[in-house]
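User: My collaborator and I are trying to settle a disagreement about how two of our proteins should look. Neither of us wants to argue from intuition anymore, so we agreed to look at predicted structures for both before our next call. Could you fold the first one, then the second, and keep them clearly separated?

Assistant: That sounds like a sensible way to settle it. I'll keep them separate. The first protein:
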Amino acid sequence: MSNDSLLRKLLGDWRVLLLLVFVVGSVISIGPHFEDGAFTTNLQYGLDLQEGSWLQMEFQAEVVTVQTDVPIDRLAENLSRDLDAEVVAISADQIEIRKKVSQDELQPVLLKEGAAIVTYNPGVSRDTAEDVKRILENKVNSLGTKDARVNVLTGLNGVTRYVRVELAGVDMKTANEVVGQQGKFEIRVQTADNESEHVLFGEAVTSVSVPTVYPPGSNDWGVGFTLSEAGADAFREAAISSNAVNDPEHHELIMLLDNKTVYSAPLSSDLAAKLKVESTRELRASTGTGDAGMQDAQNLEIHLRAGALPVGVTVAGSGSVSATLGDYFKVVAFVAALFALITVGVVIYFRYREPSIVLPMILVNLSEIIILLGIARFVQQLDLASIAGIIAVMGTGIDQLVVITDEVLYEGRVPSKSVYLKRLSRALGIIVVAASTTFIAMLPLALMDLSTLRGFAIINILGVLIGVLVTRPAYGRIIMAILSK
């Protein structure tokens, strides 16, 4: 059989065509190209392989199991007043205190309310942790970063004490400003004797505009936002009751973010006159001039859009990866994968000592990695654990190709077509069973929030599915055609 005939025979098989389609589609998905004089791709890299930061934050809250004859809702309400904090009933005998209170401080307060502590656990409930995760993900997405992971670390008792956020391509200062704070926005109005009273919180904000300079042509940055009808009414009532509409110079409007003033100025004459007659929903917070004002406006926009965390947080740990170190890790990871591929090729050659067997085996294994990268680009960023998963897929892939090759060869020769197909079916059956075992073993890790272990598991599962559905059946037909020749 000539090479042309062999090629036509292979291209006429739908399994081989399916493999080629996946390879071409994956190359397009990976998108290797030159940009700004440097070679790059569309692959998403994790924090290990590019510049970025991570923060581990501790919740300033406690979940307390109590023994009491008082209805839990009433107890929560009384404690909220006594502790000057938000207290939420989460079950018939559990409360969540959204403030840092030690057990010694809490014990006498509970005794006064007719309750006693059964268990005391720093942290928040599972529902609150999920709310925090959702809000942080919204804030992180506002940064436009390619790789961001938010993982809540929940103990066996169901209480979450820490949340960890990893941001690739974001410096530590920005990470701390955006996700290292509660993001609590508040509007207050100045009353007598330089005191101020609360008007509304950020939940009254219904829409937020992008940061702009105002008036046009100036260098004064700010963020415009719209209040809900209830928020607008509360704002008008506060402006009238504080006399800010008649004497704005002595009753300034104050806007705070995490108890830090981002805007403080009298009401404009136009706004004061309008508030005497009707409510207004359109407001603007000025954050200052220059680059600092622009950065503050961008951070304020993120917090207003995403909302405040339901509970305060403090940074318990942090770290960063420099751009230089990230590039070094990329090179090391690539060299490790290349070395693994070469080593596998050498071992296979010494086993069969036949290039017509070894070369297709290596090419199919390489095509499997290309397909894996092309699909992983949409579902998983590449970090060191993912690279380890790719190398593991490479090794198990070669193992399974060896199983196919050894099974279909009969005393070093290709058997008849019917016998060959029976042997190929048996080999594929063995591979499916082995792949199912790997899939079942990796599935729990893929579903759990275990950070890097999750990436390793996802890559292994993708590799198993690609092998069983695409590359193994194609290799069986390819090796049959080549050995027949």
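The second protein, kept apart from the first:
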Amino acid sequence: MADKAFITPKVLKWARQSAKMTEETAAAKVSVTVDKLKEWEEGVSQPTIRQAQTLAKSYKRPFALFFLPEVPRDFQPLQDFRRTGSKQLNTSSVFIIREVQQKQAWISEVYAENQEARHPFVGRFSIKADPQTVAADILTTLKLNPAAYKTGNPIKEWIDAAEKKGIFVSRTSFINSRLKLDAEELQGFAIADPYAPFVFVNSEDWNAPQLFTLVHELAHIWIAETGISNDIEPEIKNKDRLHPVELFCNEVAANALMPKAIMQRLDAVVFQHSKNVFKAAKQLGVSSFALLVRAYNLHLIPLPTYQTLKKQAEIEYAAFLKREEEKSAKNKEENKPAPIYYPTVINRNGRLFIQTVLDAFHGGHIEPTLASNLLNVQVNKFQKLEAQLYR
């Protein structure tokens, strides 16, 4: 007979509930009935060690945690700045938030113990400030000029600039092959810590919305408002459904990515057709929709022109999505390889965080197991990961 795991029932139940996992889903993970799972959670019977280990892995909790006498203190939920009526956070969102919180808590504690300097830009302003002033400060601090990007990849330039200033940036669209992130549910979040500010961006969408999300979350850092966001890109209607902090951070992002001076220098021909709008938006790293909203708000185009160009852009965007869908389906048919492992790992952890962990590992300041857990990478892959880091 398999050895039983004499776990603490209420801890087992808490672990499932905190993972936002239903009884049916959890029971299926270990091929038992819901009634049997309930028995374990009520202390009527016990799972085997193997079953408890499987549940620990599914809930993304250490196996040893199940044997604690009481429910442990967990990370506090981030403030919810999302649009009114948003979906409840599911397992994928809960897991990515917890993952980033664990990374952030570790690095913040290390920096605080080492008496590292606090970042002066965290909380430099409040929501009462002028969004244009905050945007200008972000650009100055990060040494960025939207009129003169050095490459054709603005989001990479923004991430590199943020990491150089000590802001950790993580991007992914999935937890694993079965747990995907939903951009409608969670587009990004920020942890405004003075030692280790963290920004997460859901990479499910294409680069332009990701960049707007990134800068929106940077605005959260600048006003020290930790929390999660969705439906970030600006729009003209339904503003009343947005939290005041989200409205403010959208304004900051619009001013940072599309400064008034740059917008006013745009040639009038840009607004004669959506294809011209797309070209101008691409140079700034934003979407056509974001550029049109910005132009309308700055009174560069009247409402009828905005509406016409927006309709054209929507048609072209729908065609773009169809092409991408067809391309994805074709790749599956041809068995083309999935995204490359190391770039995916680098995006999810962020270059700054990876280098920080590897430096601590090489210096003998942390154990291999902790380094592996922080990066979610096996130790024997560290050398190759580091070699890929700045390619």
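Some points you might bring to the call about the second protein. The chain has a mean pLDDT of 92. Residues 161 and 176 are 29 Å apart (CA to CA).
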